[in-house]
Specification:
Metal Binding Protein, Guanine Nucleotide Exchange Factor, Chain A, 7-stranded mixed sheet, mainly beta
Length: 154
């Protein structure tokens, strides 16, 4: 399912106002293509780690929530807007956006949902021409960029 160990299971929002930690590995890691997840993530799909509430804690701050449907809420940072989670109201688990983890590379999706809304071009992403951020900006411009993003650690 994933290669994350307990010590890697931390994360938070872009500005650092909200942080979280897990005490156990996620139950499942998936991608959701449904239209609601597209809008909530501002992306073609959402990648989510499904975690038992007992294994999850907000360790800094508390997120704001938006009730996106009659059965679910989505948490986000009120300060920087980072989408953080999807959770069924009164459900046993919370689904955290994998991009909010400090080590998202360790959370490998094994399942897709909402495929009726999957955008046709998503399946060809791996075949598109690509370049690194350094290649895109060049060393001089990249060296002059000052990030205001919280580091991927506490």
């Amino acid at each position: 399912m994933n290669t994350a160990s307990k010590t890697d299971l931390t994360g938070g929002c872009q500005c650092g106002a909200i942080r979280f930690a897990l005490s156990a590995a996620p139950v499942r890691i998936s991608i959701c293509h449904c239209r609601m997840c597209q809008k909530a993530s501002g992306a073609p799909f959402a990648s989510l780690a499904d975690i038992e509430h007992a294994d999850f804690a907000w360790t800094r701050g508390q997120p704001a929530a938006f009730r996106s449907s009659s059965i679910a809420e989505r948490d986000f940072c009120a300060a920087c807007g980072t989408p953080l989670s999807f959770r069924r109201i009164d459900g046993p688990r919370i689904e955290i956006m994998t991009g909010a983890f400090d080590r998202p590379d360790r959370l490998v999706p094994t399942r897709q949902y909402g495929t009726e809304s999957r955008l046709g071009w998503v399946v060809g992403l791996a075949n598109l021409p690509s370049q690194t951020t350094l290649q895109n900006y060049g060393p001089d411009k990249l060296a002059g960029i000052v990030s205001h993003q919280h580091p991927d650690r506490d």
